[in-house]
Amino acid sequence: MLSFDEAQAIFANAAEPVRETETVWLGLATGRVLAGDLVAVTDTPSADRSAMDGYAVRCEDWQGGACLPVQQVVYAGTRPQALRPGHAIRIYTGAVIPVGADAVVAQEDAEENFRGVTCTRTPLTGQHIRRQGEDVRRGELLLPAGTLIEAGHIAALASQGLVHVPVCRLVEIAILTSGDEVAANDEPRDVYQVHDVNGPMLESLVQSMGAVVRCHRHVRDDERVLHHTLRELAGHADLVLVTGGASVGQRDLVAAALASAGGELLCRGVNMRPGKPVTIGRLRGKPVVCLPGNPAAAYTTFALLVTPLLRRLQGRTRLFPPVSRVRAALAGARVPPCDAFWRVGEVGYPGDPGSQEGLVHVAAQQGAAAVSALGHASGFVRVGPQNAGQLHHVSLPYYDLHRWLG
Question: Where are the membrane-spanning stretches (predicted)?
Answer without folding.
Answer: none
